[in-house]
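From the methods appendix. Each design record in this collection lists the tokenized structure first, followed by the designed amino acid sequence. Records were kept in a plain field format so they could be parsed without special tools. The example shown here is representative of the layout used throughout.

RECORD:
FOLD TOKENS (438 positions):
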């Protein structure tokens, strides 16, 4: 077993068996016999332990992880301060339903999130209210309910290629891949999708939809990702998010920001929307908030979260162990990891820009902080998902774990503890892989 200190001295992956190794293959065979076919396993990787930005499989192979468990392990795998908080809280209290009782870790986390929420500073009283969930999809479901309750309206606007989850309300907002909704209809009614990130799309909303078939007085909320995640780490055009805010203000529509993937320091700020200085009405969180424990949250301006007792609740949301992990996670983010995400993100984008200059099928990088992607294109400049998938597999067999997103994008969403040296190793491996393509 290796430690965080030692792992930062490891400069490259270390593969000691063929992939998958014998122990991994045996576990994969057992897993496939009993688990749901809906799981999408990317690689024959059977993880034994994690440490910082490194993953060790059951056969002793060490990989460099540029996924953070899909942007979840914000403080790195098994950060010792997070582990200590989990251990100490587990020894005292594993569970008491936060919807029915009180305990300090939940109150402490809610206070911190409320204080840091990018909402207008009130002249008096609280800045925000917080509801805890178990996941990003559950946060989106709750936000959808809250918006409809507060506005007493029934329609919602979402965006093509957006991803918000696979439960029914979240799936109805999602416009990512057809397989995610195929065969599950009818979906929640009243959702209209428009193209993401362009002023042309907002022109169409205002000049066509609002005047013909989508009365703005019926619209409860617009749900948007500041940077589209699963859609390809897509950045909006300048002024797009600011204009969304203005449209919402003019028609008394709530602006819901899905920060499940972009939040918690990943972009070099605690909330991605802070790059644009746009004030939302509701924010949904999960993924990186608790360094790997299941936790999500809905943040709302206090005058909006007025639903009465019993109208919305859950059993496990705000579990004391998850809250203890989140309290430490937020301290670590504020005490250096957000700044590290900003600095390492610049290094990553500089390195990927150099790679793009040498390979015509690789686009320039896009994103912010450690939420970065490149696109793989064919000779005509069109997305080439088949080539993207081969590159991902080739990288895995060199010990580098990456994931795709969008039509043919490769995303880079490492733990926020990643070092300059590990960025360099990532770029070197990727360069060696790309040399094999025409």
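DESIGN:
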């Amino acid at each position: 077993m290796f430690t965080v200190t030692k792992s930062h001295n490891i400069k490259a992956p270390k593969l000691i068996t063929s992939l998958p190794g014998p122990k991994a293959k045996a576990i994969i065979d057992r897993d496939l016999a009993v688990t749901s076919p809906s799981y999408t396993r990317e690689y024959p990787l059977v993880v034994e332990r994690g440490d910082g930005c490194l993953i060790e499989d059951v056969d002793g192979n060490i990989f460099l992880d540029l996924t953070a468990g899909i942007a979840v392990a914000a403080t790195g795998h098994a950060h010792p301060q997070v582990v200590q908080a989990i251990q100490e809280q587990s020894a005292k209290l594993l569970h008491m339903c936060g919807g029915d009782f009180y305990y300090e870790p939940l109150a402490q986390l809610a206070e911190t999130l409320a204080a840091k929420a990018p909402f207008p500073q009130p002249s008096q009283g609280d800045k925000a209210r917080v509801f805890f969930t178990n996941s990003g999809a559950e946060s989106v479901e709750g936000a959808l309910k809250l918006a409809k309750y507060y506005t007493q309206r029934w329609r919602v606007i979402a965006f093509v290629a957006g991803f918000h989850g696979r439960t029914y309300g979240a799936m109805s907002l999602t416009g990512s891949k057809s397989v995610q909704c195929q065969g599950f209809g009818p979906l929640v009614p009243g959702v209209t999708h428009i193209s993401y990130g362009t002023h042309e799309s907002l022109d169409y909303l205002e000049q066509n939809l609002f005047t013909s078939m989508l009365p703005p007085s019926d619209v409860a909320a617009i749900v948007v990702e500041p940077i589209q995640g699963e859609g390809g780490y897509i950045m909006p055009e300048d002024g797009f998010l600011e204009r969304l805010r203005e449209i919402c203000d003019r028609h008394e529509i709530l602006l819901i920001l899905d920060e499940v993937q972009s939040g918690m320091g990943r972009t070099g700020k605690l909330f991605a929307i802070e790059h644009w200085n746009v004030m939302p009405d509701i924010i949904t969180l999960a993924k990186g908030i608790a360094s790997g424990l299941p936790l999500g949250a809905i943040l709302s301006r206090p005058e909006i979260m007025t639903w009465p007792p019993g109208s919305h609740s859950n059993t496990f949301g705000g579990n004391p162990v998850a809250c203890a992990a989140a309290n430490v996670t937020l301290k670590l983010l504020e005490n250096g990891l957000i700044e590290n995400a900003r600095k390492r993100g610049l290094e990553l984008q500089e390195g990927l820009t150099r790679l793009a200059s040498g390979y015509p099928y690789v686009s320039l990088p896009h994103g912010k902080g450690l939420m970065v992607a490149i696109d793989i294109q064919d000779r005509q400049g069109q997305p080439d998902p088949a080539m993207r998938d081969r590159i991902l597999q080739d990288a895995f067999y060199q010990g580098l774990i990456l994931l795709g997103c969008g039509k043919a994008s490769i995303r880079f969403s490492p733990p926020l503890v990643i070092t300059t040296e590990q960025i360099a190793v990532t770029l070197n491996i990727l360069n060696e892989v790309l040399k094999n393509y025409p």
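APPENDIX NOTE: The longest strand covers residues 219-224.
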